[in-house]
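Reposting from the mailing list since nobody answered there.

I have sequence plus structure tokens for a pair of proteins and want to know whether others read the tokens the same way I do. The first protein:
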Amino acid sequence: MIAQIAIDLPNFEALDYLYVPKNSLKKPKESIVGHWVIVEVRNKKKIGLVVGLKSHTSARQVKQIEVVIDNLPPVDESFIKFLTFIANYYHRALGKVVFNSFPTSLKSIKNLEADYINKKKNYFFGPNEINKKKNQHMVSWELNQEQKKCYESICLARKPILLHGTTGSGKTRVYFSVIKKLLQDQKSAQVLYLVPEIGLTPRLHELLQSYFSSSEIEVYNSTQTPLARAKTWLKMSTGKANIVLGTRMAIFLPLPNLKLIIVDEEHDTSFKQSEGFRYSARDLAVYRASILGIKLILGSATPSLESWMQSKRTKYKYLAIKNRASNQPLPKLTIFKKNYYSHEHGISEKSLKLLKTHISSGNQALLYLNKKGWAPVFSCTECNWSAKCINCSVNLVLHKEKKEFLLCHFCGHEELPTRICRNCGSNRLKLSGMGTEQLTHKISELLPNARIMRIDKQLIKRKKEFDDCLNKIENGDVDIIIGTQILTKGHDFTKVSLVIAMEIESNLKHPDFRASERLFQSLIQVSGRAGRHPQEPTTYQEPVFITEVIDTQNDFLTFLSNASYVDFAENLIKERKNWSLPPFTNLATINLTHPNRDILENETDKILVALDEIVTNFQKSKVKYSGPLKVFPEKLSKKYRSRILLEANKRADLHKVLYAIKPKIINIVAKAIIDVDPIDF
């Protein structure tokens, strides 16, 4: 009998190995599919997954499976089907899919041969140590009428659910109620709870532990130690834990009793892997739920247009929560025109006056600026030279945290700022633009007694640091929070009553057709941090959302001032349909990189010539392609980049061309990656 085995190797599908039951701990032939095995590849031992059996092979010589690994739990047929779909849809080698988020400590042949899992079974399979003090205060709440109506509809629904709840509407309460009902009905059921950012995990994990104190709850993300990740993988794949809270990588967990998937903030682009294997965890959640016939909830205050259209096409059941759980009003948008004072001090006089009023009342304010560092451009006024990264074709950003340095936000290159222009020798250098560091400095000068906290990924590099910041905000030890988009997602700040969004217009000038959608989503999300909870009458301030712009008549601001995502989405739908853009067409890109620009151009031309032949054979009207397209930045980490765009009305036509071009891509000198349903342009 020949076993087909997926191994962690690029550009290889499943490899054939001889399966002899007597050398496999006397397992019956039928049971070997789904088991993890050790095989020899190129004189090295590797772990693999048996994905199928067949009676014969075309290979001249076939090696024998060395060991069937008994203490690694096998996966079921539906999970293999799921992995195979991923490999086919994203045109990725099956072995690379299988081992995409597989724990490194469990992949080690040395560990497996040393009986690593049995030696650590008390750690891997023992109960989690839960802080008892945290669980003395059990979380419990009653659903209001809107939430209850949605909960009841979810329980009865047979389709994926798009839960569109305004910021602070209590979507989490609905999720928890659905989980509670599921675990009451099926004690062994498993729940996959996906969130877009690691920063959302700690508080939500605490909440889950408090609400489901008798259930085993695990976390799965990239910040875990290899040992902790192995523990979660083993517990979930053996069905010993009920709930796993994870980022996009958790979609690859084997879950034998999976009955519910929740994708919170489903619109968030973080669910799409942007490098290497470019999968969408949200889209995979939809497929996984469909093949298992289980419930799927996609939740957001600002749904993606793709999900919005699926609900309009009745593929998803649309449910809405229009009011906040606290019955507090949504923040009112105020638009201020930028003036000289704004450019000089980072904030207008009107905004400053409101800022003083809110923090003097004992409330907190959040200033949102999605630019890290001190200044994004360091340039010469004489010749327009600007400091650029030696590895990437981008400007270096000036930072003044502890020391003054220029930093590339793409590759991490650092250098000291020059005092004279490197092009013409002039000492007339200037800084342009403003980042969170400079804004913090300017606000501290305007309000020297205010307690200001800056939060961005440059400053918050470890989970504990972020947790400490959130605790200080919750305890009222902070008056003004200044931060980037890390603060827009899911955080429940009880004392924030004022949000000011800075420098938003540059986002509208971005060539990406999704730029306005993303900006609207981020602004609605960040504005929703204000006024979420009732305040004492003595400290009450009506929640306010301010944005300062140069062009106050922009159509975008009209939609934003009405805070109507429905109207904005419907308007975008018309635009996308007119221009034949997603979700009314299907896209894929072939992304090529090489250190030498000339070689990259030649290799791109080879792919274009091959595409012309393939598309002509498949009827040119069905699939369109264009390229090479400009990519920003053109050079990244010492490699030049180019892109070819493919478009088709029918997804099957698009994949037909991608399958045909794949062998050509594998054999070129440049590195090439296929991205199906790309989101970055």
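The second protein, same order (residues first, tokens after):
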Amino acid sequence: MAVQIGAQLGDYRLVRELGTGTFGTVYQAQHEHLRTQVAIKVLHGQITDDERARLRAEARTQAALVHAFIVPVLTYSEQPVPYLVMKFAPNGTLKDRYRLGQRYPLAAILPHVHQIAEGLQYAHNMNLMHLDLKPANILLGEQQEALISDFGIAVILQEFKTHQTMSDFAGTPAYAAPEQIQNKPGKASDQYALATMVFQWLTGTLPFRGDPWSIGVQKLAQNPPSLRSQMPSLSPKVEKVVLRALAKEPGKRFPSVGDFARALEEAALSATPPARVVNTPVQPPVFQTPAPVAPAPLPQPPAGNTIYTDTTKISQPQLSATVPVVQPPQQTRPADSPTTARIAPGVTIKEGQQDSAPTLPTPPGARFPRLVAGRFRRLPKRRRRIMVLAALALTLLLVLGAGAAYLSSIRVPLKDTYTFTTTQDNTNIARQQVNSHLASIEIDHQEQTTLATGGPTPAVQARGTLNFFNNTPKIVFLPQGSVLNEKHALCSAPIQMVLDADVTIPASPDGQYGQGLEAPAHVLQYGTIGNVSAFPDTGCFHSDEGQPGADGNFSGWVVQNAAPFTGGRDAVLQQSDIDGAAASIMAAHPAPNPTDALQVINRRNSRLLETPAPSCGTRVTADHAVGDKIGQAVVFFTYVCSGYVYDEAGAEQVATNLLTARAARDLPPFFKPEGEISSTITSVTLTDPQKATFRLTVIAQGTWGFQF
């Protein structure tokens, strides 16, 4: 079934076409009620019931793929055509960003290579492969980040096919690995595809070029060409990494796609020339004794934080320090010296001045204590208190010496509560961004034929008479209600005849067809589709059961309609016709438990929200629109179970990172975390049902310590 711009697929209306790929066409669509934008991929062709079941199970798995660099699948449906609903990426694809025929610096492409590899590695860890990785399948998100799309579709459909020709190949030959062309794909095939993209972006060309068949032959017979032959300035280390990932044998590539990305980054760093160092003479500073500074009063411990030591009481000693005074050397001017003499860089003594120590400019080192004191006073009070207490403990250890040996450690427990709002964007730990969305799963697909009843009268079946012939020595009996399928190539439409009476076809003693036996029948389908012509004038109903004999003549019984079937009449399809069929399906197939149905996606990175509770609704469509004049229609029925989910693991990681950042900000650098930092979500509140955003409260706590 073809779809057009403006068509309605579930709750989404197609707005414009974004592109066509190997397995389907991608459209931008808008939710009918929420007005949110999504991308919908409509799969090409028809799939069998077994393929449909496997594709449905795989779509559920894809819906659970929640990663910063993978386009999330929001829902999947099979009616009226198989299609996937995905998050909409507004900034195009890497095919538009890095155009074939142009070269790009390694530093420019490395961030996207790293992001793609991270998303692939995440999927490989879940035993999922892409197998159609190419620039056109890498979208650009709102922050220009790489988002892998169409994940898993290639591997699913490829399992459904047996490749006989390159035209049947599931994937894009220019980026496909040799083993994939031989129908033996693996995780290393995705690494090969990513390396091909890197080759293209660095050199401006693909490793192998030509029509799909010749590309496949080249990949199986030849090694990829040298990158430096096309780009001599490229580092040999970078070339070595890319060519290893493009090895013909999967076992010779990197152990994982993540290893490939790391090796490429290391090669890029080693290829970067070191910064040029300019040796500038440094003048030795002359220090002056700083003025004495009265000791500041000891601050109190910060509220909410307790410093634990291995002793119960420590006496505060009186601390003092003596700063030595460095006197500059006496300068003696010879008698024959000029009236102005230079005794140090930037310092002069003029005629008439005493030969005592000159007045020197204040060096930077002399300003250091005042600089540190000024910056210290500008720090937050809580941080100053913690730093003072830590410094005091260290000073006591140094002053008391062996007498303070029993002072062994300082432990500072930290605990904070964080509240933030989730977003429909992908989880980004660095930006303190946690994903949430309304997840839905379609289950229990059913269909039923319904009669069109609108108009003066409901749709009517055509009726007529069938003629039966037999040339075998056996009697053939067909009971009333038997359904006969048409097999004649000239019949205008596939129809089925139903016998209205028992039929006993007599045997033929001489092997010849005798006089035909007539029996009443009607067309199974309602409407004018059953008004067929007489056989064999213009092509009509013809059915036979038998096989060719040894002499080549057909042996068996035959049924034809010697006269036309008439009386079939169409009617107008009404909404009540569709609703009646849906009600009949619901009575035979009760609604599932929504929580049980959504358990497939209830995991750490997509935790199902209990309040509001998940729910299951219905989606009813038909192969004809209401108001069409037909005999009958097929009604498709599906349960759609929905629930709000959020990235629980991502939220806890954000809180952990925030507490770690606070420790780095408030504690001296020699304090290290002791044990794991725990984060616990204490409340989850839905704040905007339309945007599917939550307010999360997370408590993070941990202990930092310093061992003497």
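Reply #1 (J.P.):
I read it the same way you do. The chain has a mean pLDDT of 76.
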